[in-house]
C-alpha cells in the first residue's frame, strides 16, 4: 500500500513532461503555420500586384497604340496638306512666271505696232497743214501715250512682283538727278501755271540710279497732276547718316481715309483736277512702293486736305564717289544729208521710221537683219553716220550682232541707237557695254530727233 503513491507521483510527473513537450511542439507548429500563412499572404499580395501591373501595362499599351494610330493618321494628313500646299505654291510660282513671260512677250507685240503708229503719226503731223489736223494728231498722240503708259506700268508691276528686278547699287550724285528731273518736268509745270523749285545739297547716295529715277518721276508726275495752283518742291537734305528726298506739292491733299489706299493698284484720288492732263492710271504710287521696297528705301506720306502732300524717301549715304554721269543736252543741228542705217525686222515699224527720217531730210538705208547688211556691204554700202537698230530681230538674232560685225570687219565705230520694247535690266546692261544709246519703244519722235542731233554733232 505504501508503493502506490510512489507510482502515482511518477506517472503524474511523466504526464506533466509529456504535456510540456506537446505544448512546445504545438507552439512550434503554430509558429511554423503563422510563418507559412504570412509567406502565403505575401506571395498572394505580390501575385496580386503583378497582375494589377500586368493589367495596367495592357491598358497603357492599348492607349499608346491608339494614340500612335491617331498620330500616324494626323502625320499622314499633315503630309498630304503639306504636299497640297507645296503643289499650290509651285503652281502659283509657275503661274507668276508665266504671267511675267506673257506680259514681256505681249508687251513686245503690243509696243511694236504702237511704235509704228507713233512714228507714222509724227510723220503725218509734219505733213498736216491745218490746225484742225494738228488737233486731231495731238488727240491721237495722247491716246497712244495713255496706252503706252499702261503697258509699261503693268510690265513694271509684273517684274517687281516676280522678283526679277535686281537693283544694282552704286554711288549716285543726287544734284545731277534732280537737275535732270527739273529739266524734264518744268515744261509740264509751267503749262499749268505752276512753279517747280529744287533745293539740293551735293550728296551722294547708295542706290540704283534707274530705279530711283523711276520712283522720283512717278512722284513728281503725281505732284504736277494733282496740283492746280502754287507749285512743287523737290528737296534733298541730310538726316544723320541718311538722306531724305522730299517731293512736296500744294495740291488738293489726300483725305485720311484714302491714305492707306493710294499705294493700291488702279486707285485714283478724288481730287484730280480737269486740267491734270487726263485721268491717271492709278498705278504710279503702286510702282513707287514696290520699287522702293526692292531698294530698301522707306516711303512716307504726309498730307493735309486742301494744303498739299509731301512724299518722302529715305536713302543711305554712299561712301564712294559716283562714276561720271553725263546728261547730254540736245544740240541744235540739221539732219539734212545724214546717212542713217536702220535695222528693224518689223515691216510696219521700219516703213514708218524710214518715212519719218526722210521727212527730216536724212538719207536712209534699211535692212531686216545682219544678212541684208552683209549683202549691202558686198555692193559697196557706204559707212553710215548713225545707226538705229532694233535689239530683238527675227529668229532670235540680236541687233548688237550687226554692231559687232561692222566694228570687227570694217572698223566702223559709228554712233548707235538701240531701240527695244524689252525693259529688262539685262538688255540695258548689254547696250551700255556696247557703248550704244538705248531708246525704249514706243520711240518718241522728238526725243529721237534730239538724240540724233546730239550724236551727229
Describe the 3D structure.
It comes from Methylobacterium aerolatum. It catalyses: ATP + protein L-histidine = ADP + protein N-phospho-L-histidine. It holds the Pfam family HATPase_c. Keywords: Kinase, Phosphoprotein, Transferase, Two-component regulatory system. By secondary structure, this protein is α/β, with parallel strands linked by helices. Among the domains are: 170-316, Histidine kinase-like ATPase, C-terminal domain (Heat Shock Protein 90, 2-Layer Sandwich); 339-456, 3-Layer(aba) Sandwich (Rossmann fold). It has ten helices and twelve strands. The strands form three sheets. Strands 2-4-5-7-6 form a five-stranded mixed β-sheet, covered by helices on one side. A five-stranded parallel β-sheet has the order 9-8-10-11-12, with helices on both faces. Strands 1-3 form a two-stranded antiparallel sheet. Helix 1 crosses helix 6 (347-359) and helix 2 packs parallel to helix 5 (284-295). The chain is elongated, with a radius of gyration of 46 Å.
Record the strand order, biggest sheet. Answer: 2-4-5-7-6
What is the share of helical residues? 55-70%
CATH class of the domain at 170-316: Alpha Beta
CATH topology of the domain at 170-316: Heat Shock Protein 90
- Major sheet attributes: 5 strands, mixed
Structural class call reads: alpha/beta
Number of strands: 12
Along the chain, the helix and strand elements come as HHEHEEHEEHEEEHEHEHEHEH
Report strand %: 15-25%
Radius of gyration: 46 Å
Shape: elongated
Q: Helical stretch count? A: 10
CATH architecture of the domain at 170-316: 2-Layer Sandwich
In CATH, the homologous superfamily of the domain at 170-316 goes by the name Histidine kinase-like ATPase, C-terminal domain
- Give the rounded overall mean pLDDT: 76
Contiguous low-pLDDT stretches (5 residues minimum) are: 1-10, 272-279, 324-333
Amino acid at each position: 500500500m505504501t508503493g502506490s503513491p510512489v507510482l502515482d507521483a511518477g506517472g503524474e510527473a511523466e504526464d506533466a513532461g509529456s504535456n510540456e513537450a506537446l505544448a512546445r511542439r504545438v507552439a512550434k507548429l503554430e509558429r511554423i503555420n503563422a510563418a507559412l500563412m504570412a509567406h502565403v499572404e505575401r506571395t498572394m499580395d505580390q501575385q496580386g500586384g503583378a497582375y494589377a501591373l500586368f493589367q495596367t501595362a495592357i491598358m497603357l499599351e492599348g492607349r499608346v497604340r491608339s494614340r500612335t494610330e491617331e498620330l500616324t493618321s494626323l502625320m499622314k494628313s499633315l503630309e498630304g496638306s503639306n504636299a497640297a500646299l507645296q503643289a499650290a505654291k509651285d503652281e502659283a510660282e509657275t503661274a507668276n512666271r508665266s504671267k511675267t513671260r506673257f506680259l514681256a512677250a505681249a508687251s513686245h507685240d503690243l509696243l511694236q505696232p504702237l511704235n509704228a503708229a507713233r512714228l507714222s503719226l509724227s510723220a503725218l503731223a509734219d505733213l498736216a497743214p491745218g490746225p484742225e489736223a494738228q488737233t486731231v494728231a495731238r488727240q491721237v498722240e495722247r491716246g497712244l501715250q495713255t496706252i503706252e503708259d499702261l503697258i509699261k506700268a503693268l510690265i513694271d508691276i509684273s517684274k517687281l512682283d516676280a522678283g526679277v528686278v535686281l537693283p544694282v547699287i552704286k554711288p549716285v550724285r543726287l544734284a545731277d538727278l534732280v537737275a535732270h528731273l527739273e529739266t524734264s518736268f518744268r515744261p509740264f509745270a509751267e503749262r499749268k501755271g505752276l512753279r517747280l523749285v529744287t533745293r539740293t545739297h551735293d550728296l551722294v547716295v547708295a542706290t540704283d540710279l534707274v530705279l530711283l529715277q523711276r520712283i522720283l518721276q512717278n512722284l513728281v508726275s503725281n505732284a504736277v497732276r494733282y496740283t492746280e495752283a502754287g507749285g512743287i518742291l523737290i528737296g534733298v537734305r541730310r538726316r544723320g547718316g541718311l538722306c531724305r528726298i522730299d517731293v512736296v506739292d500744294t495740291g488738293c491733299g489726300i483725305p485720311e481715309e484714302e491714305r492707306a489706299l493710294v499705294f493700291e493698284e488702279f486707285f485714283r484720288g478724288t481730287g484730280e483736277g480737269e486740267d491734270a492732263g487726263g485721268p491717271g492710271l492709278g498705278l504710279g504710287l503702286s510702282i513707287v512702293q514696290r520699287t522702293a521696297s526692292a531698294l530698301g528705301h522707306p516711303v512716307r506720306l504726309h498730307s493735309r486736305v486742301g494744303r498739299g502732300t509731301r512724299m518722302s524717301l529715305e536713302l543711305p549715304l554712299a561712301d564712294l564717289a559716283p562714276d561720271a554721269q553725263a546728261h547730254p543736252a540736245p544740240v541744235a543741228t540739221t539732219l539734212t544729208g545724214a546717212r542713217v542705217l536702220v535695222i528693224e525686222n518689223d515691216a510696219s515699224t521700219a516703213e514708218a521710221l524710214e518715212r519719218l527720217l526722210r521727212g527730216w531730210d536724212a538719207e536712209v538705208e534699211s535692212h531686216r537683219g545682219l544678212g541684208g547688211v552683209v549683202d549691202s556691204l558686198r555692193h559697196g554700202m557706204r559707212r553710215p553716220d548713225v545707226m538705229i537698230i532694233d535689239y530683238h530681230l527675227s529668229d532670235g538674232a540680236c541687233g548688237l550682232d550687226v554692231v559687232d560685225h561692222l566694228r570687227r570687219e570694217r572698223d566702223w565705230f559709228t554712233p548707235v541707237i538701240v531701240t527695244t520694247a524689252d525693259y529688262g535690266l539685262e538688255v540695258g546692261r548689254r547696250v551700255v557695254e556696247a557703248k550704244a544709246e538705248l531708246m525704249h519703244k514706243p520711240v518718241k519722235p522728238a526725243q529721237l530727233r534730239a538724240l540724233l542731233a546730239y550724236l551727229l554733232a
